[in-house]
Amino acid sequence: MKLFIENLPKAELHLHIEGSFEPSLMFKIAERNKIEIPFNSIEEIEKAYNFNCLQDFLDIYYQSANVLIKEQDFYDLTYSYLEKCAAQNVRHTEIMFDPQTHTKRGVSFKTVIDGITKACEAAEENIGVTSLLIMSYLRHLSEEDAFKTLKESIPFKNKITAVGLDSSEQGNPPSKFKNVFEASVNEGYIPVAHAGEEGPAAYVWEAIDILGIKRIDHGNNCLQDESLIKEIVKRDMALTICPLSNTSLHVVDDLKNHPLKKMLDLGLKATINSDDPAYFGGQVNRNYIEIQKALNLSKSDLYLLAQNSFKYSLLNEDKKQQYL
Ligand code: HPA
Ligand code: ZN
Questions:
Q1: Probe ligand 1: pick from 53, 64, 276, 280, max atoms within 8 Å of CB?
Q2: What does this protein do (predicted)?
Q3: What is the pLDDT of residues 155-177, one digit of tens each?
Q4: Residue 276 annotated as binding?
Q5: pLDDT 10s digits, 50-108
Q6: Which of 66, 185, 234, 275 shows the greatest Cβ crowding within 10 Å of its Cβ?
Q7: Other CB atoms closer than 10 Å to residue 104's CB: what's the count?
Q8: How far is residue 30's CA from residue 32's CA, in Å, rounded to a whole number?
């Protein structure tokens, strides 16, 4: 099964580039930028990666991003992730980035996007991995702040395919971002959002009805509402499921109780993703391997999940056909 998974061509649809920041690269960049980090060794960092909930993780995730200052830092971060894609037979990836995490610290939007896009272009040329970008708004900040980010993105519009919504879900419903999503769609960005990870099914409804999202990031809690499940199936929307993220953040208590198989049985279009691989104990292939073992998934289940990853990508139809 491991070999089958490793050889399976796949796409990754839910990945935060800041969450791919491996401790070894973090030390290297901190050193060259002469920034102190509150850890003395990789082992110390790994020990700190023990989370009780989403917020626990987010606190450390934003802190780690502080060492990213220069275009080269964003380039190295992104290229290093794309090399891992190539090694795992991930042929295409849809990368989320959080501009506000960086612009809040005085790093310019241009520095962030130039570093990331140059790495994406080089990786496509050198190692054949295609990618597109999803600019994610931080939902713990105001809608006004998201509007500022939207405005900053306009000169780089041709480099960005979609907008997303991430960070602390509880207490920050999708409806808070109604206007900025509407404006983003008017600029040509495709809307997606994290919903139903820690938040209730009602937040998934809002993301669909109010933000008009085309794909649901996580979406686990849709299972609490039968009419919502029916609606998602009817609309043929995919869920980007992240098994190791779910157990790391206690969204699911044990992989053996993960609802992935149930989702497939209900006709929901699930995909497998790593979310923040440097923090949650595994890249995409490890997610496939662990969930296969826990739920005893068949080869045809795995094939379906990989097919879904291409079918529900945000690539245009012509490009999608090259992978299907
Ligand atoms: N949920 C919300 N925000 C995030 C996540 C996540 O899983 N990863 C990075 N930012
Ligand atoms: Zn995520």
A1: 276
A2: Catalyzes the hydrolytic deamination of adenine to hypoxanthine. Plays an important role in the purine salvage pathway and in nitrogen catabolism.
A3: 999 999 999 999 999 999 999 99
A4: yes
A5: 999 999 999 999 999 999 999 999 999 999 999 999 999 999 999 999 999 999 999 99
A6: 275
A7: 14
A8: 6
Tell me the CA–centroid distance for residue 108 and ligand 1, in Å.
Answer: 22
Using alpha carbons, list the distances in angstroms from residue 124 to 34, 83, 92, 117, 163.
31, 10, 9, 11, 22
DSSP calls for 124-180: HHHH--EEEEEEEEETTS-HHHHHHHHHHHGGGGGG--EEEEES--TT--GGGGHHH
Domain boundaries, the chain: 2-313
**CATH code for residues 2-313:** 3.20.20.140
Index of the ligand 1 atom closest to the CA of residue 249 = 7
pLDDT at 287: 98
Give the percent of the chain with pLDDT over 90.
98
Nearest ligand 1 atom, CA 136: 10
Q: Which two tokens stand for residue 87?
A: 């090694």
3-state secondary structure of 104: coil
> What residues have a C-beta under 5 A from ligand 2, the ion?
275
Q: How far is the centre of ligand 1, averaged over its atoms, from the C-alpha of 322 (Å)?
A: 30
Q: Which amino acid is at 257?
A: N
Q: Which two tokens stand for residue 312?
A: 């529900």
Give the closest residue to 218 by CA, choosing from 237, 193, 235, 236.
193
The pocket around ligand 1, CB under 6 angstroms, is made up of 16, 19, 54, 166-167, 194, 197, 245, 275-276
The answer to whether 219 and 199 have CB atoms below 8 angstroms apart is no
- CA 243 to ligand 2 centroid distance, Å: 11
Nearest to 270 by CA among 315, 207, 223, 323: 223
How many CA atoms does the CB half-sphere of 82 hold within 13 Å? 28
DSSP category for residue 189: P
Query: Which atom number of ligand 1 is nearest to the Cα of residue 242?
Result: 7
Cross-strand partners of 275:
15
The set of residues, in sequence order, having a beta carbon less than 8 Å from that of 247 and lying 6+ positions away, is 253, 254, 255, 258
